[in-house]
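Table S4 entry, GntR family transcriptional regulator.
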Amino acid sequence: MELDRAVPVWPQVAADLRRRLDAGEWEPGERFPGTVTLAAEYGVTQSTVQKAVVALREEGRLRTVLGAGSYVLR
């Protein structure tokens, strides 16, 4: 995915992760990739990915367990 650096990046990352979730790349209950992995994949900082993950969590798409990572809900 090519990011448009002229606008905030985290919403673009969140939209792509949403698309990937909808496509079934990760099944409900499956552990979601960590911020280090996703940051490297997208070529962005971990804080950018964290903002995207928070948005998905607030939408009810992910559940985060402190010290254990995030898991797909739907």
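Helices lie at 9-22, 35-42, 46-58.
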